[in-house]
Design brief:
Layout (H helix, E strand, L loop, with lengths): L1 E5 L2 E6 L1 E8 L1 E5 L7 H8 L10 E3 L5 H4 L9 E4 L1 H9 L1 H5 L2 H7 L4 E3 H4 L6 E5 L8 E5 L4 E5 L2 E2 L2 E2 L9 H12 L5 E4 L3
Parallel strand pairs: 4-5, 5-6, 6-7, 10-13
Antiparallel strand pairs: 1-2, 2-3, 3-4, 8-9, 9-10, 11-12
Length: 189
């Protein structure tokens, strides 16, 4: 279940993917779905103790990407400003699951811009479309693109959800052309 992607990056696939990056600061990209919590607890702990995770970066705030946020008691949680605004205006429309939207009220979110100084190895790439606040993360040293639900190989994420913007997806795809990735790390698959 846990596989090494490249130097300092591991992937746990549990319907949606969780990426652990050891850049000095122990960093996760997304936390997977709550329905797979047992698998997350069983396998992710093999590469990082949960209390050692310092930072969780969310590509967007759908339930299948935030579901295990509360396993990481010492982490700072970060999402794009737009995604945080969407969450404040309409938690259910942002998270897409009533139970998870209620649980996620406990998370203290900070804008990615504030958190990224702690992880200079990663660059935030705004990619509205799947949600208006979606982002990809670029690890330039290894040319790894963490694409969330924006890009899955040759297809893109859905744009028919409450905070989607189908008109912006094409622009986001054009923006990603400039990132000649060697490894694609999507949110699923």
């Amino acid at each position: 279940m846990i596989t090494r992607v490249c130097d300092r990056v591991w992937k746990l696939s549990v319907d949606s993917n969780i990426y652990f990056c050891d850049f000095g600061r122990k960093t996760l990209i997304d936390t997977g779905p709550r329905a797979k919590r047992g698998l997350v607890q069983q396998f992710l702990d093999k590469v990082v103790p949960f209390d050692a995770v310092e930072l969780v970066l969310f590509t967007h705030l759908h339930y299948d990407h935030i579901g295990n946020f509360d396993l990481f008691p010492n982490a700072v949680f970060a999402a794009s400003r737009t995604e945080i605004e969407n969450w404040r205006k309409d938690p259910l429309g942002t998270v897409l699951d009533e139970d998870m939207a209620g649980k996620f009220r406990e998370a203290r979110l900070v804008p990615l811009e504030e958190a990224m100084g702690k992880v200079p190895e990663l660059e935030v790439v705004p990619t509205p479309g799947h949600t208006t606040g979606s982002v990809c993360l670029w690890y330039g040293k290894e040319r790894v693109l963490f694409s969330g639900d924006t890009l899955f190989g040759s297809t893109t994420g859905r744009t028919d959800l409450p905070t989607s913007d189908p008109r912006q997806m094409q622009e986001s795809m054009m923006r990603l052309v400039g990132y000649n990735h060697r490894i694609l790390c999507p949110g699923h698959g």
